[in-house]
């Protein structure tokens, strides 16, 4: 894992927030395994599929925002905790939940795996463990 792994993961959230999905996708390996926190039943493969998924969600009027993020490195992973707010553009629906993410990166700084956990989908004692495991 590169020494600046926390910075690299922080930048991923900034790119997503800015809607720069293609730039974000370039920072994932083609075979990366991605479990979105807001869609725990879904497994995405690679940055391009993630960018397409986020772009399509945005085109349907779905806003996915993260707030109050805390980042730290734990051995060979980067952990992130915060809140995830999901709303429809017409303001008809809103979800605000605690969430966490576990990122694995290769030696070049590319993401190889992300396990996102929306805290309401599993018991509090399981936070930090992939909901898809």
Entry keywords:
globular, alpha+beta, Nuclear Transport Factor 2, Chain: A, single chain, 3 helices, 6-stranded mixed β-sheet, about 130 residues, disordered C terminus
Protein model, in words:
With 133 residues, this protein is of the alpha+beta class. The chain has a single domain (5-121), classed as Nuclear Transport Factor 2, Chain: A. It is built from three helices and six strands, in the order ααββαββββ. The protein has helices spanning 5-17, 21-25, 46-59; strands at residues 28-35, 44-45, 62-74, 77-88, 94-105, 111-118. The protein has a six-stranded mixed β-sheet, with helices on one face. A hairpin with an 8-residue loop joins strand 1 and strand 2 (44-45). The longest helix is centred in the middle third of the chain and has 14 residues, at 46-59. It is globular and about 45 Å long.
In short:
This protein is an alpha+beta fold. It has helices at 5-17, 21-25, 46-59, and strands spanning 28-35, 44-45, 62-74, 77-88, 94-105, 111-118.
SSE topology sketch:
Blueprint lengths: L4 H13 L3 H5 L2 E8 L8 E2 H14 L2 E13 L2 E12 L5 E12 L5 E8 L15
Parallel strand pairs: 1-6
Antiparallel strand pairs: 1-2, 3-4, 4-5, 5-6
The separation of the N and C termini measures: 23 Å
CATH class designation: Alpha Beta
User: What is the annotated CATH architecture?
Assistant: Roll
Strand order, biggest sheet? Answer: 2-1-6-5-4-3
Named CATH topology: Nuclear Transport Factor 2, Chain: A
Number of domains: 1
Radius of gyration: 14 Å
What is the average of the pLDDT values?
84
Contiguous runs where pLDDT drops below 50 for at least 5 residues: 121-133
Order of helices and strands: HHEEHEEEE
Classify the secondary structure makeup into a structural class: alpha+beta
What profile does the largest beta sheet have? Answer: 6 strands, mixed
């Amino acid at each position: 894992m590169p020494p600046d792994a926390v910075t690299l993961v922080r930048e991923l959230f900034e790119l997503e927030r800015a809607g720069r999905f293609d730039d974000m996708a370039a920072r994932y390996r083609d075979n990366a395994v991605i479990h979105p926190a807001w869609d725990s039943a879904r497994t995405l493969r690679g940055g391009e599929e993630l960018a397409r998924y986020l772009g399509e969600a945005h085109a349907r009027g779905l806003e996915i925002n993260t707030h109050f993020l805390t980042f730290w490195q734990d051995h060979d992973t980067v952990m992130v905790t915060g809140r995830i707010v999901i709303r429809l553009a017409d303001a008809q629906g809103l979800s605000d939940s605690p969430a966490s993410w576990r990122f694995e990166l290769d030696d070049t700084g590319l993401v190889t795996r992300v396990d996102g956990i929306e805290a309401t989908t599993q018991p509090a004692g399981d936070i930090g463990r992939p909901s898809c495991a």
